[in-house]
Amino acid sequence: MNRIRTAALATVLGLFGLEADARQMREETVHFDEGQTTVELLDHIVGREAVTYRVYVRKDQTLQVRLDPSNPGTYFNVYEPDKGPGDIAIGSSDRTGPTVPDTNSFSTKVSESGIYKVSVYLVRAAAREGEHSRYILEVTAGDVQGEVASASNAPAAAETAFSGPEFYVVNVNSRLRIHAAPSAESDVVMHAGNGTVFRNLGCLREADRTWCEIERPSDGLTGWAASEYLHGESGAFTTLVGLDETPYGHVDGWNILVRPDTGNGCIAESTRDGVQIQIGFDPVDDSTFLAIFTEKHMGFENGEHLAVLFDLDGDAFVGDITEEKRPGFEGGYVHVTNPDFLMDLSEKETLTVKPAGIPPFAVSLDGSKAAIGKMIECQLAQM
Question: Which of 48, 188, 232, 290 has CB atoms 3.0–4.6 Å from 165's, for a disulfide?
Answer without folding.
Answer: 232
